[in-house]
């Protein structure tokens, strides 16, 4: 499985944020997108997830377990917001997402209980999501990545609000995902502890090495 992006460009309003971004990443690999604020990191991830249209270029998932027209169909997207209802319990939130996504061909998600245990918060899934601390909420949003199998993880500042122990836990989750043949693309200002991860640096409008690796 390979995710191939060719000549991607995107606008914010009338302004061109980045231009002619190309890269390729295979199953088992991670790509970390870096750059200063406003360089287009979040915009690039949202384009890949299908949440924003590209001004030009394409992003394709090749040789996936089932045919896909858009990368987002095979992806989990974890953005700045946690995408969880505050009034519902953690269990209710995760049960909804498990049923909503279902499993993409080639893998199987874990149970809600197993996902909660994996993020180190076993025993509090009965609480309303809004009762949790910011760090606990972020951990539970990470559990959403586990309950339904998606080969592509698109992660925007995934370790925001986490302490060091939680950062290490999340690195372990990503490495386990890569070991299953999945791939991950993350935008971050903080080290993620992903051994062997590639880097793509954006400098605003054009990448440092246009379409190349840092």
TrEMBL record:
PROSITE patterns named among the record's database cross-references: ABC_TRANSPORTER_1, ABC_TRANSPORTER_2
Q: Which UniProt keywords apply?
A: ATP-binding, Cytochrome c-type biogenesis, Membrane, Nucleotide-binding, Translocase, Transport
GO MF terms held by the record: ATP binding; ATP hydrolysis activity; transmembrane transporter activity
Where is each ABC transporter domain found?
3-214
Which Gene Ontology BP annotations are present? Answer: cytochrome complex assembly
State if Membrane is listed as a keyword: yes
Alphabetical list of InterPro entries matching this protein:
AAA+_ATPase (IPR003593), ABC_transporter-like_ATP-bd (IPR003439), ABC_transporter-like_CS (IPR017871), ABC_transptr_haem_export_CcmA (IPR005895), P-loop_NTPase (IPR027417)
Which NCBIfam families does the record cross-reference, listed alphabetically? ccmA
Which family, according to UniProt? Belongs to the ABC transporter superfamily.
PANTHER family per UniProt: ABC TRANSPORTER I FAMILY MEMBER 1
- The name this protein goes by in its record: Heme exporter protein A
> What organism, scientifically named, is this protein from?
Shinella granuli
């Amino acid at each position: 499985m390979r995710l191939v992006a060719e000549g991607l460009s995107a606008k914010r309003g009338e302004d061109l944020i980045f231009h002619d971004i190309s890269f390729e990443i295979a199953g088992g690999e991670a790509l970390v997108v870096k750059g200063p604020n406003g360089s287009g990191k979040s915009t690039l991830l949202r384009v890949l997830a299908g949440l924003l249209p590209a001004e030009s270029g394409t992003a394709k998932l090749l040789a996936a377990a089932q045919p896909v027209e858009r990368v987002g169909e095979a992806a989990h997207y974890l953005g700045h917001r946690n995408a969880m209802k505050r009034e519902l319990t953690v269990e209710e939130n995760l049960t909804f997402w498990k049923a909503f996504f279902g499993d993409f061909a080639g893998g199987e998600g874990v149970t809600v209980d197993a996902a909660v245990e994996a993020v180190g918060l076993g025993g509090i899934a009965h609480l309303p999501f809004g009762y949790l601390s910011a760090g606990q909420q972020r951990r539970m949003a990470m559990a959403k990545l586990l309950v339904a199998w998606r080969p592509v993880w698109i992660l925007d500042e995934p370790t925001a609000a986490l302490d060091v122990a939680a950062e290490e836990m999340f690195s372990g989750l990503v490495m386990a995902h890569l070991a299953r043949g999945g791939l991950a693309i993350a935008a971050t200002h903080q080290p993620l502890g992903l051994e062997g991860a590639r880097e793509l640096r954006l400098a605003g409008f054009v990448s440092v090495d246009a379409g190349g690796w840092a």
